[in-house]
Write a structure and sequence with these properties.
- With 215 residues, the chain is an all-alpha fold.
- The chain has one domain.
- The chain starts with a helix and ends with a helix.
- The structure holds protoporphyrin IX containing FE (HEM).
- Protoporphyrin IX containing FE binds next to α3, α4, α6 and α9.
């Protein structure tokens, strides 16, 4: 992987790598749209007997995957000793926001049928939805300030501090998943394990930096 990345220039990664990664990350949304199109036409499709639940779960899963992937970019880049993967971090984070928007749209439209009173009651009553909603609210300022203009406006230090919120969002996302599935289920625990490893890496780097400063 390191040798492949080293052989591609940053310019080529921007020109060809980014559109490729963009298209790949769009595939789940294309799959979902295509299957809804088939479902509306009463044709066989991949949404199963409960399309609304499939949509909610599918978009929730992809939100969490892209969230964790965005958290994995920095450790991966440090591991291979190249900053090139960082070129993709913003795009991955914005895709997490895109999929959580679809996740919410699916919940508001298919689950709640735009009944705002019922929806608000549900957000307050079911704790796992309150947790998911909090994660979404925290994700909004990160998506808004993801541009270079906002880095300048806030200053690099303050921008970085704000964007550390992504760890809290990851934790809330995993808690939301564990609570939603109820009981012992392996899938949410796999996500929890990946998040724990990413957090451990982050804490270790932080401690190393602190030790270097104090010596
Ligand atoms: C960063 C924020 C969020 C993440 C990472 C996330 C992730 C997930 C995941 C992984 C699932 C389980 C999928 C499965 O069982 O395979 C799920 C389910 C669900 N989420 Fe979220 N979610 C988030 C925000 C929200 C918000 C804001 C709402 C609603 C206001 C919401 C409502 C739901 C509902 C209702 C389900 C259950 C789906 C069903 O069983 O039909 N989520 N979410």
């Amino acid at each position: 992987m390191t040798t492949i990345l080293a052989s591609i220039s940053s310019k080529d990664l921007r020109r060809f790598g980014k559109p490729l990664v963009f298209s790949l990350m769009l595939l789940p949304a294309v799959w979902l749209t295509w299957n809804w199109w088939l479902a509306f036409g009463y044709q066989p499709n991949g949404l199963g007997f409960n399309p609304q639940e499939t949509s909610n779960r599918f978009t929730g899963d992809w939100t969490l995957r892209f969230l964790l992937l965005s958290l994995a970019v920095t450790p991966f880049s440090k591991l291979i000793g190249s900053s090139k993967p960082l070129l993709f971090r913003r795009m991955i984070g914005l895709f997490a926001f895109f999929y959580v928007s679809l996740h919410i749209a699916s919940y508001v439209w298919l689950d709640m049928l735009f009944d705002w009173v019922e929806l608000w009651a549900d957000v307050l009553k079911r704790i796992y939805i309150t947790v998911g909603f909090t994660a979404f609210l925290l994700l909004v300022p990160l998506a808004v300030t993801s541009t270079g203009g906002w880095v300048k406006r806030l200053g690099a230090k303050r921008w970085q501090r704000l964007h550390k919120l992504v760890y809290a969002i990851g934790i809330l996302g995993v808690i939301h998943f564990i609570m939603m599935r109820k009981g012992f289920q392996i899938e949410p625990l796999i996500y929890a394990g990946i998040l724990a490893a990413l957090l451990a890496f982050r804490v270790q780097k932080h401690l190393q930096k602190k030790r270097r400063v104090s010596t």
